C-alpha cells in the first residue's frame, strides 16, 4: 500500500473516532437532564473548547461545572445564554479568565497622613484667602497686619494641623488585636482626643496670627489661588501613589497596612 492511501485511511479513522467521541459527549449531555437549548449550548461549547485548544482534563472539568450550573439555572427558568452568553465567548472566557484585581492595601503611615492633611489644609486656606482677595479686597487691606492671611501663618497652621490630625487619626483608629480582629475605641476617648486636637490647633492658629509682617508677608491673590491648587493637586497625587487612608478628608477602602 502506497504512503498516500495509508495516510488517507488514517485520517478517515481519526475523523470517525472524533465523530464517535462527539456523539458520546452529545448523549452524555442528553442524559444529564438538560433542556434542548441547553443541550445545544453544551454541544457547541464542547466544540469551541476543542477548537480553541482546551486541555482535555480542563475541558472535562469545565463542561461538568457548566452542566451543573445549567441544571441549577433551569429550576429558575434561566437560559444558557443568560448565564454564560454565547458558547464561543464563554469558551474564550474559560480559557482566558480575567485576572481578579488585587485589592490595594491602604496606607495609614502617620507621616503620610500628616502630609496629606497638611497639603489639604494649605490648599483650603490658600484658596480661601485668594478668593477673598478677589471678591472682597478691602477686607484684607483693612487689617492692621497680615495676621492669618500671611503666607507664613498659613504654612504654620497647615503643618500644625497636618501633624496634629495625622497623629490623632492614628490614635482613634480601632485597635488591632493579636488575632487580627479590630476593637473600636470608646466614644468618650475618641471625642476627647478630637477636642484636644482642635484646642491645640486653634492655639497654634491664634499664635500664627500674631507673627510680624516682616516674616509673614501677604502674597498676591493669584499666588494664593495657584499655590492652593498646586497643593490640592499634590495631595491627590500623594493619595493615589500611596493609597492613603484618611478619615479626616475621606478614606480609601482596602486592606489596612498600618506602619
TrEMBL record:
Disordered: annotated segments: 1-26
Q: Which UniProt keywords apply?
A: Membrane, Transmembrane, Transmembrane helix
Pfam families in the record = DUF1129
What's this protein's name? Integral membrane protein
Q: Where are the transmembrane segments?
A: 118-137, 149-168, 188-210, 222-238
Provide the organism lineage as a comma list: Bacteria, Bacillati, Bacillota, Bacilli, Lactobacillales
Under InterPro entries, the record lists: DUF1129
Amino acid at each position: 500500500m502506497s504512503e498516500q492511501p495509508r495516510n488517507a485511511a488514517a485520517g478517515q479513522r481519526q475523523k470517525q473516532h472524533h465523530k464517535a467521541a462527539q456523539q458520546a459527549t452529545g448523549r452524555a449531555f442528553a442524559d444529564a437532564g438538560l433542556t434542548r437549548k441547553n443541550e445545544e449550548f453544551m454541544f457547541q461549547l464542547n466544540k469551541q473548547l476543542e477548537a480553541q485548544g482546551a486541555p482535555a482534563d480542563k475541558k472535562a472539568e469545565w463542561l461538568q461545572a457548566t452542566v451543573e450550573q445549567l441544571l441549577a439555572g433551569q429550576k429558575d427558568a434561566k437560559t444558557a445564554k443568560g448565564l454564560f452568553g454565547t458558547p464561543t465567548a464563554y469558551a474564550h472566557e474559560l480559557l482566558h479568565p480575567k485576572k481578579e484585581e488585587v485589592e490595594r492595601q491602604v496606607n495609614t503611615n502617620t507621616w503620610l497622613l500628616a502630609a496629606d492633611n497638611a497639603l489639604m489644609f494649605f490648599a483650603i486656606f490658600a484658596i480661601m484667602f485668594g478668593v477673598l482677595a478677589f471678591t472682597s479686597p478691602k477686607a484684607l487691606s483693612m487689617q492692621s497686619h497680615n495676621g492669618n492671611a500671611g503666607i507664613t501663618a498659613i504654612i504654620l497652621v497647615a503643618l500644625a494641623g497636618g501633624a496634629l490630625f495625622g497623629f490623632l487619626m492614628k490614635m482613634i483608629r480601632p485597635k488591632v488585636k493579636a488575632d487580627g480582629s479590630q476593637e473600636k475605641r470608646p466614644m468618650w476617648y475618641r471625642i476627647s482626643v478630637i477636642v484636644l486636637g482642635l484646642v491645640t490647633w486653634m492655639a497654634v492658629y491664634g499664635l500664627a496670627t500674631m507673627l510680624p509682617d516682616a516674616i509673614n508677608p501677604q502674597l498676591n491673590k493669584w499666588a494664593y489661588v495657584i499655590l492652593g491648587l498646586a497643593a490640592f493637586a499634590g495631595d491627590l497625587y500623594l493619595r493615589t501613589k500611596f493609597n492613603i487612608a484618611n478619615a479626616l478628608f475621606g478614606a480609601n477602602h482596602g486592606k489596612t497596612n498600618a506602619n
